[in-house]
């Protein structure tokens, strides 16, 4: 693949990932700007808080899809694993740093799930298992999300991959983890709100 072709693929993935579905859906539902409510995040958690659970689920699915689609298309056109991994990273970057919202986006969990599903579905089950176990035991979505992200490159090590591909997926995991820095800080201080049993009025997004 030529450098120009790869650049165009990466740009397309970035733009696809940058679509702020949460913001758009809440506005279309007549609920105003989702950033002005709750935690101010455009992800599914805050969308559910502002527009209801159904709207939150649709946002979640679309955020997964916008990561899945560019990697899926590129994979079926025969692009190499290194190119696919770079395209995956660009899609997540688009969600986290969307240019339409002054480069302020979501935390990347759903979009990272989408790119992983398209790249190699076998990566997802171990990460999902980690997420579920830690969510059930500790009740923190943020903790489960961070550890699930950390699991993705570890699974690739087990499956066997090139150093370049591993580095790109480590970057995706690191991006998701860094976007949860406030949640991590609250976890260490004992101030993070659990998924159930949380105090009323809490506006912290965990995922």
Any low-confidence stretches, pLDDT <50, length ≥5? none
Question: Radius of gyration in whole Å, from Cα?
Answer: 17 Å
- Portion of residues in beta strands equals under 5%
Secondary structure tally: strands? 0
| Average pLDDT reading | 90
Domain tally: 1
Structural class: mainly alpha
Distance between the termini: 36 Å
Helix/strand order, N-terminal first: HHHHHHHHHH
Query: Helix share of residues?
Result: 55-70%
Number of H- or I-type helical stretches: 10
Q: Report the biggest beta sheet as strand number plus sense, adding barrel if it closes.
A: none
What general form does the structure show? globular
Walk me through the structure.
It is built from ten helices and no strands. With 207 residues, it is mainly alpha-helical. The protein has one domain. Helix 3 (44-51) runs antiparallel to helix 4 and helix 5 (81-96) runs parallel beside helix 9 (163-179).
């Amino acid at each position: 693949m030529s450098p120009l072709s790869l650049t165009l693929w990466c740009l397309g993935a970035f733009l696809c990932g940058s679509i702020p579905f949460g913001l758009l859906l809440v506005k279309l539902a007549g609920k105003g700007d989702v950033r002005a409510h709750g935690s101010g995040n455009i992800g599914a958690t805050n969308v559910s808080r502002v527009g209801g659970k159904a709207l939150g689920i649709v946002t979640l699915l679309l955020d997964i899809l916008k990561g899945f689609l560019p990697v899926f298309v590129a994979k079926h056109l025969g692009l190499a694993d290194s190119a696919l991994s770079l395209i995956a990273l660009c899609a997540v970057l688009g969600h986290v740093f969307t240019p339409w919202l002054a480069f302020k986006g979501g935390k990347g969990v759903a979009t990272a799930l989408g790119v992983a599903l398209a790249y190699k579905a076998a990566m997802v089950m171990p990460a999902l298992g980690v997420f579920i176990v830690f969510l059930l035991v500790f009740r923190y979505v943020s903790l489960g999300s961070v550890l699930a992200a950390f699991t993705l490159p570890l699974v690739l090590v087990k499956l066997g991959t090139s150093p370049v591909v591993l580095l790109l997926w480590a970057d995706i995991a690191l991006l998701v983890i860094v976007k949860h820095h406030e949640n991590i800080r609250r976890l260490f201080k004992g101030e993070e709100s659990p998924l159930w049993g949380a105090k009323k009025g809490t506006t912290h997004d965990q995922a």
